Automatic annotation (TrEMBL):
It comes from the Eukaryota. Mn(2+) binds at K184, D208. The chain crosses the membrane at residues 492-515, 527-548, 625-644, 650-671, 683-703. GO terms for molecular function: cellulose synthase (UDP-forming) activity; mannan synthase activity. InterPro entries: Cellulose_synth, Nucleotide-diphossugar_trans. One of its GO terms (cellular component) is Golgi membrane. This is Uncharacterized protein. It is found in: Golgi apparatus membrane. Its main location: Golgi. UDP-alpha-D-glucose binds at K183. It is a multi-pass membrane protein. PANTHER family: X-BOX TRANSCRIPTION FACTOR-RELATED (PTHR13301). Belongs to the glycosyltransferase 2 family. Plant cellulose synthase-like D subfamily.
């Protein structure tokens, strides 16, 4: 972090001077595009060369860190040992002659112990057992712009360039064995509290560790929504997730275009997109579980804070002053103060910051229609300097016990207890009546990496589906939504909870064509007019839906087809597993564990998409493999029968085989995934699925022996 912060002092002014995009040095320097296009400043070439060199040196230093930290720590540890030995000798202990045992500590450059995990982990210095850490890596900037100067030829000319950097703070919350740290949601909540005390920005951008900013102007676009008239009723602005490093054919629908360019856009027209965990700009007070302003029933739920807040802040410019001394009705006030530790915990700095954040997040009162606006100039007041006591308070709010007996994770902040904490967190806000906005920028706002091999992708989908099943069986089921949630939004959230259950029907549909080939009977016994009309109606609706989806969203037909394919692949494997796991959890109370989705590292220099071919066996693959096998066997059996029958009915065979092919076409990417790069599929896969397929086939034949008429494919005939 220190290395990055120091590089930033050169990098950020460089980006500002020459309008560099993206502002991620790694992807900027690896861009395939001509870096000199549209660049006119004559010193660009020199500056770029200089920065590139610094960046390369920075990378090499970072690579050398494990080694240099080890050497430094060894030196310090030896020094400590010598010190102790000397002291012993002075105290005449030398006859004991025993070895000095001191822990192999990891040391920082300033000669102190690293508070976090040590290279040789010990108690209080290991993963899951260490103190809170807050390090201010870049100090808060000045309030006034600070321009650079013209310097000697060796470095950059920064005249008229604002060289300020935003404050950068490293935060690692306290971890102790025996505490539930609530994974990402817990981490986010610690960050929300620490930042409330240290900077208290009224808006919070949240990015995953595998995402970066691709468009430095995206935030402004988000802010436009927040600051617009009525923008104070927006809880968050969600940007689409875009991915890099995905194989050009996007075999496993990693881009998720149908979700991000159809579903999310559609939701934008109702109450707003769901929160998808990253690339999201939040209003801080919405995270604090307040209702949006101007809700019809002000004291409907337990949000007494909001009532107080509104009453007291009509004309005041809060400047971090404490709640006391405000002209509010005293009864109300007492109740609220008593409630605060219960909701937000025992930090008065944190509680005081809430009102400031609310005030600063309001739209500018520059128009009569802006209610509770912020008077112009209110934000230009210089901010307080960071002092030691503030940092100490920030450290205390990221301790393990801080959330005890508070509402963090229950009502406030990111919600705990779900593997898809994001959906639940957003749902709670919509449920309070907040609106969200979907912001699709012309140039991608953020970009991230996604798991591109089959196994990791399936596990990712499994985790999402598991989260959905959990939501279905929890109080966050949209059936129990409040009246503040719009009707169609409720349907959408209901769908989020229900979709994994469709896997049950999907599985049946995938087996039916094969089974009808085995039995020689079509699924439908008699094709009457009513049935055909229904069938036609449904088919036309589906086609119309697809056409509209493609037309409105502007996605490619290929994207849509990939999505259909992966819907079936995920549906028959991950969704089914999620439903089973979810039922296990609800009925038997057996907990689910999941692993962090692995990233496409791109270590293989020869093949950019080497990860795509990684194959790890997973039991999730059994159902799709079985479906493929059975359908293939079904086709083979039907073809044989037709060939050897007295009067071969080719058209009816075609009718039956068509449906099997339809299923197989969906599973094609999956089959490709199984093959690996050079067909290195573990034999176990085929042994297992072969066994399962044969068992099912035999069972079917035993239960339902084929009828004697040689009509394979049943009475269904193609014209
Ligand atoms: O114990 C944990 C696990 C995860 N994370 C963070 O969570 C992010 C998401 O994890 P990842 O393995 O990348 O999962 P994805 O499937 O790529 O994530 C999607 O789905 C998650 C929940 O389903 C959301 O939290 C993510 O924002 C969303 O991008 C990571 O980047 C981490 O920053 C933690 O902080 N602590
Ligand atoms: Mn991710």
């Amino acid at each position: 972090m220190a290395e990055a912060a120091s590089f930033a002092h050169l990098w950020v002014p460089f980006c500002r001077k020459h309008d560099i995009e993206p502002r991620n040095p790694e992807s900027y320097f690896n861009m395939k595009r001509d870096p000199y296009k549209n660049k006119v400043r004559p010193d660009f070439v020199r500056d770029r060369r200089r920065v590139k060199r610094e960046y390369d040196e920075f990378k090499v230093r970072v690579n050398g860190l494990p080694e240099s930290i080890r050497r430094r720590s060894d030196a310090y540890n030896t020094r400590e040992e010598i010190k102790i030995m000397k002291r012993r000798r002075e105290l005449d202990y030398d006859e004991l002659e025993e070895d000095v045992k001191i822990p192999k500590a990891t040391w920082m450059a300033d000669g102190t112990h690293w508070p976090g995990t040590w290279t040789v982990p010990t108690t209080e210095h290991s993963r899951g057992d260490h103190a809170s850490i807050i390090q201010v890596m870049v100090k808060p900037p000045s309030d006034e712009p600070l321009t650079g100067t013209e310097t000697d030829s060796s470095s950059m000319d920064l005249t008229d360039i604002d060289i300020r950097l935003p404050m950068l703070v490293y935060v690692s919350r306290e971890k102790r064995p025996g505490y539930d740290h609530n994974k990402k949601a817990g981490a986010m909540n610690a960050l929300v509290r620490a930042s409330a005390i240290m900077s208290n920005g009224p808006f919070i951008l949240n990015l995953d560790c595998d995402h970066y900013i691709f468009n430095s102007q995206a935030l402004r676009e988000g802010m436009c929504f927040m600051m617009d008239r009525g923008g104070d009723r927006i809880c968050y602005v969600q940007f689409p997730q875009r991915f890099e490093g995905i194989d050009p054919s996007d075999r496993y629908a990693n881009h998720n275009t149908v979700f991000f360019d159809v579903n999310m856009r559609a939701l934008d027209g109702i109450q707003g997109p769901v929160y998808v965990g990253t690339g999201c700009l939040f209003r801080r007070t919405a995270l604090y579980a307040f209702d949006p302003p101007r809700t019809k029933e002000p004291s409907s739920c337990c949000d007494c804070f909001f009532t107080r807040r509104r009453k007291s802040s009509v004309a005041s410019v809060p400047d971090g002053a404490s709640i006391e001394g405000k002209s509010v009705d005293s009864d109300d006030e007492e109740m609220n103060i008593a409630l605060i530790p219960k909701t937000f915990g025992n930090s008065s700095l944190l509680v005081d910051s809430i009102r400031v954040a609310e005030f600063q997040g309001r739209p500018l009162a520059d128009h009569p229609s802006v209610k509770y606006g912020r008077p112009p100039g209110a934000l230009t007041l210089p901010r307080d300097l960071l002092d030691a006591s503030t940092v100490a308070e920030a450290i205390s709010v990221i301790s393990c016990w801080y959330e005890d007996k508070t509402e963090w994770g229950l009502r406030v902040g990111w919600i705990y207890g779900s593997v898809t904490e994001d959906v639940v967190t957003g749902y709670r806000m919509h449920n309070r009546g907040w609106k969200s906005v979907y912001c699709v920028t012309k140039r991608d706002a953020f970009r991230g990496s996604a798991p591109i091999n089959l196994t990791d992708r399936l596990h990712q989908v499994l985790r999402w589906a598991t989260g959905s099943v959990e939501i279905f069986f929890s109080r966050n089921n949209a059936l129990l939504a409040s009246s503040k949630m719009k009707f169609l939004q409720r349907i959408a959230y209901l769908n989020v909870g229900i979709y994994p259950f469709t896997s049950i029907f999907l599985i049946v549909y995938c087996f039916l064509p094969a089974l009808s080939l085995f039995s020689g009977e079509f699924i439908v016994q008699s094709l009457n007019i009513t049935f055909l009309v229904y069938l036609l109606g449904i088919t036309l609706t589906l086609i119309a839906l697809a056409v509209l989806e493609i037309k409105w969203s502007g996605i490619e037909l290929e994207d849509w087809w990939r999505n259909e394919q992966f819907w079936l692949i995920g549906g028959t494997s991950a969704h089914l597993a999620a439903v089973l796991q979810g039922l296990l959890k609800v009925i038997a109370g057996i907990e689910i564990s999941f692993t962090l989705t692995s990233k496409s590292g791109g270590d293989d220099l020869n093949d950019e998409y080497a990860d795509l071919y990684i194959f790890k066996w997973s039991s999730l693959m059994v159902p799709p493999i079985t479906i493929m096998m059975i359908n293939l066997i079904g086709i083979a059996v039907a073809v044989c029968r037709t060939i050897y029958s007295v009067i071969p009915e080719w058209s009816s065979l075609l009718g039956g085989v068509f449906f099997s092919f339809w299923v197989l076409a969906h599973l094609y990417p999956f089959a490709k995934g199984l093959m690996g790069r050079r067909g290195r599929t573990p034999t176990i896969v085929f042994v297992w699925s072969g066994l399962v397929a044969i068992t099912i086939s035999l069972l079917w034949v035993a239960i339902n022996p084929p009828s004697n008429n040689d009509q394979i494919g049943g009475s269904f005939q193609f014209p």
